[in-house]
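Please fill in the sequence for the structure shown.

STRUCTURE ENCODING:
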């Protein structure tokens, strides 16, 4: 009886060395991406003076991520998650280093930036699914919600600190404004190192049995993810599109897909709109980064609300942050200065952690192990489906309209779409898994 009790008892998450190592690497990488997200548009605006070209860079990057989503999920179901992360992070390190060198030497051009955008987007799309599943593979099932909450701290913390840090680093004229790109390259190197180190780190401790998450036998954290494919031969049937078909059959995801696509389409270019809006007000690069980071502070502040909001039905939890974006966009158009903008981007973020954890509970935890990579890849692809269009549309709006008028257009489009989605009874009535 004592042995059995010890077998099913996992140590606290804070003592899970593999989880914490991977979390640190992912946090560092996410911080680097957030730094780059503010540095790239600032650099392109400085070089070309064109919001549309800044939007084009982000659009190409989003298209790369979108195109890599389904193949990345398929790879995650068949090969070592650790190896996928290592290769993808190495590629992103090399590309970002090349951009920094080109900037310092004066060779940086828009075509070179667009090539970098495509490669960085494909790298993010390929390793995104593998990183998430690798992190989950070292956590016992009963600790997944706590792990996902800590993941929200990672995501929002990086988004909070990254823009301010990116703006501050870009303001330094040393090395031709290349410091934010060098920082991002170094962050990818840290993520690569922590993923590589998981083979040598001790396991979390006893779990539910051989091969269970967090054990030394777990194939995904030992670098033999092909074992997963062998263990689930039937679930690998259906090819790369199996994840999309699973989402379309899901009772909640059918009506929720339109909500997710709509919000991400409208929100894709929102940072660019805010950058242009604040630049026209004479706000410094460092302060612009700080304002954009406040949106992530809303996500961190919303983490304690996860349990409270999960008393509602999952579809309602998904709708709450989406609906709050409409008044926030309208109020952003008021000329009350940067701190008003910060307050407006803070509010919608409060419900985002609960919505993302709800998706994890309702969709990912119910997925068969052999299909989980493709379902994560499909969900990521669906969530980003309209983002390239939204980013380019925002760039074109800013090219011909003022930032305030662009915000009003975005608010009108989002309000019209969500009004339709809110009439879908399946979205309101979908239950939590039993």
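FILLED IN BY: designer on duty
SEQUENCE:
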């Amino acid at each position: 009886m004592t042995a059995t009790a010890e077998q099913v008892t996992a140590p606290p998450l804070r003592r899970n060395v593999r989880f914490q190592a991977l979390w640190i690497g992912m946090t560092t990488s996410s911080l680097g991406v957030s730094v780059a997200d503010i540095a790239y548009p600032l650099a392109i605006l400085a070089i070309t003076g064109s919001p549309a070209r800044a939007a084009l860079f982000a659009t190409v990057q989003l298209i790369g991520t979108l195109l890599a989503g389904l193949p990345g999920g398929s790879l995650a179901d068949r090969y070592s998650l650790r190896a996928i992360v290592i290769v993808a992070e190495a590629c992103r390190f090399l590309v970002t280093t090349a951009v920094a060198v080109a900037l310092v030497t004066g060779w940086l051009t828009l075509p070179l930036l667009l090539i970098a955008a495509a490669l960085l987007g494909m790298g993010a799309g390929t390793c995104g699914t593998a990183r998430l599943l690798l992190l989950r593979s070292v956590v016992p099932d009963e600790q997944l919600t706590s792990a996902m909450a800590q993941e929200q701290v990672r995501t929002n913390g990086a988004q909070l600190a990254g823009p301010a840090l990116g703006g501050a680093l870009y303001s330094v004229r040393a090395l031709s404004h290349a410091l934010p790109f060098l920082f991002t390259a170094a962050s990818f190197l840290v993520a690569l190192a922590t993923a590589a180190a998981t083979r040598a780190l001790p396991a979390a401790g006893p779990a539910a049995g051989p091969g269970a998450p967090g054990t030394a036998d777990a194939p995904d954290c030992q670098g033999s993810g092909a074992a997963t494919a062998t263990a689930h031969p039937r679930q690998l049937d259906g090819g790369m599109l199996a994840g999309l078909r699973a989402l379309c059959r899901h009772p909640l995801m059918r009506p929720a897909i339109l909500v997710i696509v709509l919000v991400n389409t409208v929100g894709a270019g929102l940072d660019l709109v805010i950058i242009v809006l604040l630049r026209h007000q004479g706000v410094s690069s460092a302060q612009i980064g700080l304002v954009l980071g406040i949106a992530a502070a809303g996500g961190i502040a919303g983490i304690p609300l996860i349990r409270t909001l999960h008393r509602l039905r999952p579809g309602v939890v998904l709708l709450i942050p989406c609906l709050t974006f409409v008044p926030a966009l309208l109020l952003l158009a008021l000329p009350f200065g940067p701190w008003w903008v910060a307050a407006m981007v803070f509010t919608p973020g409060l419900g985002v952690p609960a919505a993302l954890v709800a998706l994890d509970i309702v969709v990912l935890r119910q997925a068969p192990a052999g299909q989980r990579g493709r379902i994560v890849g499909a969900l990521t692809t669906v969530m980003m489906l309209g983002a390239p269009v939204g980013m380019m549309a925002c760039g074109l709006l800013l090219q011909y309209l003022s930032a305030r008028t662009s915000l009003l257009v975005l608010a009108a489009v989002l309000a019209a779409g969500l009004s339709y989605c809110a009439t879908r009874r399946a979205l309101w009535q979908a239950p939590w898994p039993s």
